[in-house]
């Protein structure tokens, strides 16, 4: 690699003044991306556990997510287009998920008050019970996984998630 001179005519000498901050900046960027990678690993691992349990209980993971969004909404019900928005999917796909939930007896639909084109979806007792069962089944596995994380991994994950929702990460 060619050496860069820090002064005119000083061939062979290395420039250290400007290179050190660049290396520190690169180290900080690398640490940031390591935190992002660790966060995505942690979140994905947990989601996979939940998806696997949903499948074991006979519900498609996306239908489970739809049921969770519906039950977890402020009113405990959503319109189909709101399900689509919460899952970031097309309205037609959300409609198909809702149909799966209704066919399985996990949700019920009714025409929305004031808008005959819209459909409200609410979980049934069976749907709510299934959500509780899945949550209870995965809790020990998630707890075991979380127990394997060290304090630095937890802190990095929380910092990255904080930046995703608008809280700036603290500089160390």
Automatic annotation (TrEMBL):
Superkingdom of the source species: Bacteria
Boundaries of every HTH marR-type domain copy: 52-154
Protein's recorded name: HTH marR-type domain-containing protein
Species the sequence originates in: Rhodoplanes roseus
Gene Ontology molecular functions: DNA-binding transcription factor activity
Region (Disordered): 1-24
InterPro entries found in the cross-reference section: HTH_MarR-typ, WH-like_DNA-bd_sf, WH_DNA-bd_sf
Biased composition (Low complexity): 1-22
């Amino acid at each position: 690699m060619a050496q860069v001179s820090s002064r005119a005519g000083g061939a062979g000498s290395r420039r250290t003044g400007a290179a050190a901050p660049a290396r520190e900046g690169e180290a900080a960027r690398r640490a940031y991306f390591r935190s992002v990678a660790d966060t995505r690993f942690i979140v994905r691992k947990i989601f996979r556990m939940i998806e696997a349990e949903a499948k074991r209980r006979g519900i498609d993971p996306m239908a489970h997510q739809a049921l969770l969004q519906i039950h977890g909404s402020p009113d405990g019900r959503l319109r189909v287009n709101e399900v689509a928005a919460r899952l970031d999917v097309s309205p037609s796909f959300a409609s198909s998920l809702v149909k799966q939930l209704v066919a399985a007896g996990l949700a019920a639909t009714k025409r929305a008050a004031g808008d005959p084109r819209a459909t409200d979806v609410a979980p049934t007792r069976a749907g709510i019970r299934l959500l509780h069962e899945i949550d209870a089944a995965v809790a020990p596995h998630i707890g075991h996984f979380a127990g394997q994380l060290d304090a630095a991994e937890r802190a990095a994950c929380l910092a990255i998630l904080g930046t995703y929702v608008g809280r700036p990460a603290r500089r160390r």
